[in-house]
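Thread: sanity check for a docking pose with zinc ion

Original post by kr_44:
Hi all, I'm comparing my docking run against an independent structure prediction. Below are the sequence and the ligand SMILES. Could someone generate the full complex and paste the structure tokens? I mainly care about where the ligand ends up relative to the chain.
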Amino acid sequence: MKNKLLSCVIIIVFAVCPIFAESVKTDNLAIQEYAGMTGRWVRVSSMKDLKIQLERFGSTIELVKKANNPYSLNRYIFIPFSSEKIASLEQAPGAKTESISSESGFIWPIQTVDRISSAFGMRNGQLHGAIDLPSTKGTPILAAMDGRVLYAQYDRSYGKVIVLEHRDNYYTKYSHNSEVFVKKGDCVRRGQIIGYVGSTGHSTGNHLHFEIRFKDIPLNPMDFLPENNNLPQPHGINRNWKR
Ligand SMILES: [Zn+2]
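Reply from moderator J.T.:
Ran it for you. Here is the predicted complex with zinc ion included:
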């Protein structure tokens, strides 16, 4: 019965989330996605500032209202691009679209990772059920897989935290963020910017604390993420293995 209920919930989750194309826009600093629209997250401080940004991206206040309901000043809002702007950006060098995936479908939640400051495993007698990815404040955090926002809120330990729910009872969690761009119930696609790296909550420096869970079981994200040649030792290979 419980299983039946669970699969029903999952069907509902993905029935309300539109199916997106496989390709992911990898130039995440120039082209971003939100609510099925293409644009950019911009911090806007005044109506005058908003007007400047609208002109810059060929956008309109109607599009801004559609993407940010409601929208407010002095915070990041999503400014959808006009179709002309999208066409010009897609032709610009570096604005390539490509699919980055592993067999399990997860991608790295930060585009360039060259160090893991804390691995998955026991730490001071407690399970650190995540990997810590040090990065500078304001680095984009990407949804590791298509899904829906289960919650996006402030937590005393984890700071500004986002939990995404994916198909087959998988969840990902992104903690200590400086900015959060999504809200509960939003559908997100893999590679979409959902926030910025920060050091909110109990944290000693700017980093992303990234978890993958199956139901409520913490799993080692390294078992699911694509191989990363930037890391000192390729994961998935135990070099000390002796027969
Ligand atoms: Zn951590």
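The first helix runs from residue 2 to 16. Hope that helps with the comparison, let us know if your pose agrees.
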